[in-house]
């Protein structure tokens, strides 16, 4: 029998390697940006078309390449950055594996134009699927311009695997921000489909952060600075009161390389300790300078994970540094975190109906169709207890015709309740006595979320936009990340009453806002929705509409900790009982509970 092992042809080997390094357009952006940085550029421009699916172009003014180097740069393991194994322990450049260009060229149509400062002419090379198609001498500015066209054109499976444009754009912005945050000394810009997303001038770190996230970040930053024999730590942490509900702005850079490190993340979170409101995450931009021989960056193909020789010491230093800055800036836990300034409107105002004067209800529309079975079991007890209280509104009939239900005819529980029979525990739980048979305990926050959720679903299902139009529409400015989420959700937002029109450089004109939202709080509400959305979105969620309704409800609902007047409580109970699922919060957990005298006796083992 003959031998069967063969060496893979280069093109195949490169494609396999590409699978590790280049997962999506954003990975190519990262590699090309890092190369531009390594080339000593002071200005880098990025142009993106179709979220990088059709074109990515990175133009730098760095050192450029000779004709031979330009040709060589596409070979696997071709690098100018290390020569010996020993060099691996003193890496200061972003790249060193010599894989990126070979990988990109294996899975795309790539063109490079490059010229060194002292050369009169430059080089042009076109390469497709690892095959050089064209090479010539051209006149071109000093520096290098890489165009990557039709990524994965020769691997349809990978191309089909790419996510929607807004999702891929977000990944690109992520990578761009990471490189931008690590290189304040380089002017950088990003354009997508002709629109400018970022224009970042040279500046210090604070200025860079502000030009990325917006002017309001200036007051949010607390500097961190620590010099030890072993390493240097500097950067910023966000003041606790600006902590986010989703992990967004958390950055570690080691020798200017962005890294992910759960252990060090823990060090920062730990330093924040009780300063943070529950379920929120600190923002931080922390830069570590350490002798390269004390770390190993060579453990991951995309180089986002590194190993420290003495991880525990690094942990201790970072924790101490963050703790000290927070202390120095006397950010103490006296702040009232539970108070949500943006939503500090009287509770009763929050109950302004989304549609008026009547609610159009499509009785055939059942947003809970899918899990009706399990839910009907949970709510079975309700039906029984509320017989009489809940004079079975027409809304719950199975008739598919839309019926109009004027608000004033809405069933009310009020007559069944005396003023003594409703009160609040710990400003969080509402207790209602029910016509002698028992009592209902209601978590005010999740109950209100349930109410708002069903309202938003109903109003949008009926295309009743419930939108308020102001005479002078406001312009709202967002971060680039938020802008891409807004674009992703634009249609959904519109169906809930947010009428946003794009207005260049991450700004929008707001032509209409939902009735239920106070004028002046639109931006904060939208930011909250975006954050909620980021936090709760599941990659494969089939029903973005429900998710949006839930995000809106969560961001507008009254919080636990808010004192409610008895009429507000009554109103809430009343509204809850009109919900299709009064017993279940929108997170699927119970939002209220019934307790009968029997239950209580049973609990007491009587
Ligand atoms: P690595 O960055 O790991 O060395 P790459 O495949 O990314 O490997 O790049 C290969 C080589 O091509 C680099 O080592 C560098 O010499 C050269 N190169 C790549 N991009 C640029 C650029 N923008 N300007 C100058 N030289 C570049
Ligand atoms: Mg590289």
Q: What would you note in describing this structure?
A:
The chain has 606 residues and is of the alpha+beta class. It has 17 helices and 25 strands. It has an 8-stranded mixed β-sheet. A 5-stranded mixed β-sheet has the order 9-10-13-11-12. The N and C termini lie far apart (85 Å). The site of magnesium ion has 5 residues, from helix 2.
Short description:
The protein is of the alpha+beta class. Bound molecules: adenosine-5'-diphosphate and magnesium ion.
Task: Throw out a few tags for this protein.
17 helices, five-stranded mixed sheet, eight-stranded mixed sheet, 606 residues, binds magnesium ion, binds adenosine-5'-diphosphate, alpha+beta
Mean pLDDT, to the nearest integer, reads 80
Number of E strands = 25
Q: Helix content range of the residues, please?
A: 25-40%
Q: What is the structural class?
A: alpha+beta
Major β-sheet annotation = 8 strands, mixed
Count of helices? Answer: 17
